Automatic annotation (TrEMBL):
This is Flagellar protein FliL. Controls the rotational direction of flagella during chemotaxis. Belongs to the FliL family. Its main location: membrane. GO terms for biological process: bacterial-type flagellum-dependent cell motility; chemotaxis. It is a single-pass membrane protein. GO terms for cellular component: bacterial-type flagellum basal body; plasma membrane. Keywords: Cell inner membrane, Cell membrane, Chemotaxis, Flagellar rotation, Membrane, Transmembrane, Transmembrane helix. Pfam families: FliL (PF03748). The chain crosses the membrane at residues 21-41.
Amino acid sequence: MTTAEATDTDLDEPRAKGSKLTLILSVVLGLLGAGLGYFGIASGVIPLGDSASSEDAVEHDPVAARPDVAFVTVPTLIVTLPPGAQNEHLRFSAQIEVPREYQGDVEFLLPRIQDAMNGYLRALTAEDIEGAGALYKIRLHLFRRVVMVVGLGKAKNLLVTEFILN
């Protein structure tokens, strides 16, 4: 029995020492790899993604890359709502986003744009104005009318700045 006990004890000790050595070696190699990786990325030896140099940073300046657009302000429209609506009036104002070269053309046609907007807003029912997603639908229809007045490509977007029901 003593030889059997001695054999079991001898087998357990090398296993414990080997697993500790493997654990310590893997931790040391992991830390060494992390340190070398950090040094390589920080020094620029290993490029990571789209790391931009100072020359590229100047080219991608968000202020310099600003789109060449202008905003034409549509004067405030006040529309009386139809009978049965929860509110009496709608106060609406917007801005039209246009390419800078067409700003003068759109400003010249602003009375026609106001007329088209006013006619559409007065034709709306109470459900159209107070329903779910009303502002989104109204904005789309008004932008379509702006494009019909100024022409395709001369208006990029309609930005609603005021939509007040009172």
